[in-house]
Input
Amino acid sequence: MGKTIAEKIFAAHLRDEPFAGTRVLSLDRVLCHEITTPVAIADLVWRGKDRVFDRDKIKAVIDHVTPSKDSKTATQAKILRDWARRHELPDFFDVGHNGVCHALFPEKGYIRPGFTVIMGDSHTCTHGAFGAFAAGVGTTDLEVGILKGVCAFREPATIRININGSLPQGVVAKDVILHVIGHLGVNGATDRILEFRGPVVDAMSMEARMTLCNMAIEAGGTCGVCMPDMTTVDYLWPFIEAEFGSKEAALADYGKWVSDADASYDKVLDFDVSNLAPQVTFDFKPDCVKPVAELVGTRIDQVYIGTCTNGRIEDLREAAAVLKGKKVADRVRGIVSPATPKIFSDAMAEGIIQIFMDAGFCVTNPTCGACLGMSSGVLAEGEVCASTSNRNFNGRMGKGGMVHLMSPATAAACAITGVITDARTL
Amino acid sequence: MSSKKSFGGSAIVLDRADINTDEIIPAKYLTEVTKEALTPYILEDLKLDGFDPRGDKLKNASVVVTRANFGCGSSREHAPWVFEVNGVHTVIAESYARIFRQNMFNCGMLAIELPKDDIDQIIALDGEGVINIAVDVEAQKITATANGKTLDFDFEVSPFDKALVAAGGWVEFADARY
Output
C-alpha cells in the first residue's frame, strides 16, 4: 500500500508515539507573530525556561497590527522584538521589513517540500502549497514548539480533492476554494488533510496554490497540501540552487514528497471547474457560498484587497486589471494592503500601485489587521465589506459588520460599482 | 500553560452549531498579554437568540454544553483561556474544531464529545432548571442532573488527552518527556 505525502512526512519526522494514534513530530519550522506568541514567551519566562530549541528554525514577524496602533499592541510587539533579540533569531521581521506571515515566510524561501511547520495561527495551512505539512496551533503547542521543537498530532487522514477541467477566464483559485468549502461545509474536513490534485492545480502558480491551501481550515482541515513539482522548484530556485545545482536534481529529490499512486484516502472528491463562475459568500460562515450572479446588487461600504489569502502580486495584478482607468464608487472606501514589502515594491515597479491610487484606493503598508477587525480598516455597525480575506464570521471585521468573501477581481469590480458585481460584466 | 483543574458544575447550554472562536473572544481583545485581562469579554459576539454574555447564567456556569464543530475558525488559545479565567473548565459538545479541542486539553481542560442524542437529552433538561454536571474523568462518565432528574453518559477520551489532563497540560507533559 502506498503512502500519501502527509504519511510520508509524518513517518520521516516521527519523534515519539506516546500512545497509539498520537504522533509527536519533530519540527522544521516554528513560525511566530506578535498576537499569539507573547503569552508563550511570558509563560516560558515564568517557568524559568526562556530558551529556543533552534534559533535557525524559528522565524518571527510583527504583522497583525503594525506599526503598533496603541500601548497594548506596542507592548505585544516589544515582547516579541525583545525575545527575538535576546535569542539572536536571525530571521525576525520588524517595521520596514515586515509583512503578512503566510506571504512573507514563503517568499523568503523558508518553506520547503517535506517540512513540518507550525504557527500560532490557523492559516498556517497555507504553507502546504509547497508540499509541506503545515498546521495552525494554539499558544501552548507553539510554546512547546519553541522550547522542544516538537508537536503532537493524530494520525494523518487525507481527503483528496481533484480539481478537473480548466478554469474559465476570470475564475481563479479563490473561486475554486470557496466552491470546495461550500461543498465540504465548515467541518467537512475536520482532522483531515486536504490534498489538492488534478490538472487545474498542476497548472496553478505557487501564489494560487497558497490561496487554495490557505482556506483549508475554513472546512476544518488541518492542512492543505499540493504536490511539489517544477512550479515549486522554480519558485524556490534562488534559495535551493546551491543545494541542488540543477532544477532537475531538485525536482527528483522532491519526488520523495509526492503521494504514491496507490495511496489510500479517507475520501476522494472530484470537482470539474470548467463551468465554474466567480463565487462569493453570504451570511456568517465561509461555507455559505453562491455564484456572484446571485448576490449582484448587494450594497457595500468598503472593499478590502489583501491578507494571507489574496495579498500577493498575482492578486494585485488581477484586481488592477479590473480597476485600470476606473474610479472607486462614491461612498465606497477602497483599501489595498500588499502582503509584503517585496510585493509592494514589485507592484510599484509594475505600475499597479498607481492604478490603485488613481482609482481612489488607500494603499496601506503590509499588514492584515483589517481581516480580523484589529486595525487598518475596521467596519462600523451595519457596514458591509467586499473582502478578499478568508472569514466572514459575525463581527469578524468589526462588531455589527458584514463580510462577503470573494476573489481580488470581484472585489475590484465591487469597488467600481459600489454593489456586488461580476467583474466579467464590466 | 496551566495547573490541574476541577471539572463539572452548573452548565450553560449554547444550542447552536459552528460557534467560532471570534464569537468566544473577539480579535480586538487579542491585544491583551495576560489571560486574566480577557475575563469580561467571554462570548461577547455570540450570535444566539436569548443569550446574554453578561447574564447570571453564564456567570454561574462551570460547564458549557453545545452542538457540533465548537470552536471553529481562529487558532487563538484565548478562547480556552477566556473559559478558564471564567471558571469554565469543561466543554461538552457533539464535536469540535481540531485546534480548539487540542488547545483545551493542552491547557489541562476537558473538551468532551458526546453523540447528538446525548446532547439532545442534556439540552432537554434545560427547561427543568439549573443543570448540574458531574464528571469522572478516570471512569469516563458524566452525570447530568436537573430538578431531581438524572441522566448518565459514558464518554471517550484518548489516552493522550487523558494524560494531558492528568499532567495539567502539554507543557508539563512535554517538558517531562522531551
Observations:
- Residues 141 and 154 of chain B are 5 Å apart (CA to CA).
- Strands of chain B lie at 9-14, 63-66, 90-93, 110-113, 131-136, 141-146, 149-154.
- The interface with chain A takes residues 1, 18, 20, 22-23, 26-28, 30-35, 45, 47, 68-69, 72-77, 80, 95-99, 102-103, 106-107, 158-160, 163, 169-171, 174-175, 177-178 of chain B (CB under 8 Å).
- The mean pLDDT of chain B is 95.
